[in-house]
Amino acid sequence: MRQRQVSQGARRAREFEAFVAGAAGRLLHAATLLTAELPEDNPRARRLLTHALAHTYACWDRLRGEDPYDRARQYLATRFARAAWHQYGGFGRSRPHPDSALAGLAPQERLILVLRLYEGVAEEQTAALLGLPVDRVRSICDRATTSLLHPARGRPSPVIGAKVAPS
């Protein structure tokens, strides 16, 4: 009996390690976009990823055919949303890095953009995950996309990222 538990634990650890090796980079990038940090300086995104992976590992045996990436992404999104909802506490407390392309967006706008455009989650799934009507998700996504593509006058577009030398 003991031998079987040890072998199941080793199999679980190998499966999870393989999952992390394949998914951690993309999840970290999604977390970095959510927190609007720079890729080379993203402590809040790394903390968010660590929580999501720990939660996924804790649920590993109960996944039963469910995609672990979906579970980790869902936890990442809900944890970010909860932190942003609570007065920008936790992951949202410090301001986004001004050089981040998504720094000018509100946390909810960043969350919906990342889920919809970067992760490719359907509007219906995004709405269900966040507890919002589908029309609301669509309008927030449209507004956030518009503000990225057409920034307010006087501000350079963060999407372009080109630095203009002073004249």
As a whole number of angstroms, the C-alpha radius of gyration is: 18 Å
User: What's the shape?
Assistant: elongated
Q: What is the total tally of β strands?
A: 0
Q: What's the average pLDDT? A: 85
Summed up, what is this model?
The chain is mainly α and 167 residues long.
Describe this entry's structure for a reader.
The protein is mainly α and 167 residues long. The protein is built from six helices and no strands. The chain has helices at 2-35, 43-58, 68-85, 107-118, 123-130, 134-149. Mean pLDDT is 85; it is low at 160-167.
Search tags:
single chain; 167 residues; mainly alpha; 6 helices; 62% helix; 0% strand
Topology:
Layout: H1 2-35, H2 43-58, H3 68-85, H4 107-118, H5 123-130, H6 134-149
